[in-house]
Specification:
This protein has ten helices and no strands. With about 220 residues, the protein is mainly alpha-helical. It is a multi-pass membrane protein.
Length: about 220
C-alpha cells in the first residue's frame, strides 16, 4: 500500500468518525466543530483525487464562512437540549425505519457491480498544464447546465421559504414603511421648527428663577 492510499484511508476514517460525532453529540457547538473537521478531511480527500479546486472551495466557503456563521448562530440561540430530546423516544422507530431504508438503498446502488473498476476505470493522471477548474466549468455550464439551474432555483425557493417562516411582526419593534418614505414632503413631514431662547439668555433666566425661589423660602 502506497503512501497516497494510506492518506486516503486515514482521511476517510476521520471523515466517518467526525460525521458520526456530529449526530451523536449532545452539545450543538461540539457537533458543529466535528462538522468542520469532517469538511476539512473531505477537502483533503478531494485534493488526493486531484480536485484541488473543490477542496479549496470546501475549506474557504464552507469551513471559512458558512460553518463559522453557523457556529455563531448556534452559540447565540442558546438551544434548549432538554426540549429537543423530549420526543426522542417517540420518534425513534420512525427514524430507525428511515435509516434502514436509506442503508438498503445505498447497499443496493453502491458496490463493485455498479461502481467497480470495469465500469469506472482509473483515470489517467492529468498533466501539469491541465486546469481542473476549467474542466469543471466546462462540464457544469455545458453538459450539466440544466441541473445546475434547477438546483439554483430550489435554493432560491428555500431561501424565500426560510425568510417567510421566520418573518413575523413584533409589537415592540419599530418598522419603516417604504410607501410613507416615498410620499414624504419637504415641509412639515421632514423637520419641525421649534422656537426657544438661546443658551446665553436661557442660563440667566434659570438662575434668576432659582434665586427667587430661594428668597421666597
Amino acid at each position: 500500500m502506497g503512501f497516497e492510499k494510506f492518506l486516503f484511508y486515514v482521511f476517510a476514517a476521520i471523515t466517518l468518525i467526525a460525521a458520526g460525532m456530529v449526530i451523536t453529540r449532545r452539545n450543538p457547538v461540539h457537533a458543529v466543530l466535528y462538522l468542520v473537521l469532517a469538511f476539512i478531511s473531505s477537502a483533503a480527500l478531494w485534493i488526493l483525487l486531484e480536485a484541488e479546486f473543490l477542496g479549496i472551495v470546501l475549506i474557504l466557503v464552507y469551513v471559512g464562512a458558512v460553518m463559522v456563521l453557523f457556529l455563531f448562530v448556534v452559540m447565540m440561540l442558546d438551544v434548549d437540549i432538554a426540549t429537543l430530546r423530549a420526543g426522542f423516544i417517540r420518534y425513534l422507530p420512525i427514524g430507525a425505519l428511515i435509516a434502514v431504508v436509506l442503508a438498503l438503498e445505498i447497499f443496493l446502488i453502491v458496490g463493485p457491480a455498479n461502481f467497480g473498476l470495469q465500469q469506472f476505470p482509473s483515470p489517467v493522471p492529468a498533466g501539469p498544464d491541465v486546469s481542473n477548474t476549467e474542466e469543471l466549468g466546462l462540464l457544469l455550464y455545458t453538459l450539466y447546465v440544466y441541473p445546475f439551474e434547477i438546483a439554483a432555483v430550489i435554493l432560491l425557493v428555500a431561501i424565500v421559504a426560510a425568510i417567510r417562516l421566520t418573518l413575523r411582526r413584533r409589537p415592540d419593534t419599530k418598522y419603516m414603511d417604504p410607501a410613507k418614505q416615498v410620499r414624504v414632503k419637504k415641509g412639515p413631514d421632514r423637520i419641525r421648527i421649534v422656537k426657544m431662547p438661546s443658551e446665553s439668555a436661557a442660563v440667566p433666566a434659570v438662575a434668576a428663577s432659582a434665586a427667587t425661589q430661594e428668597s421666597t423660602e
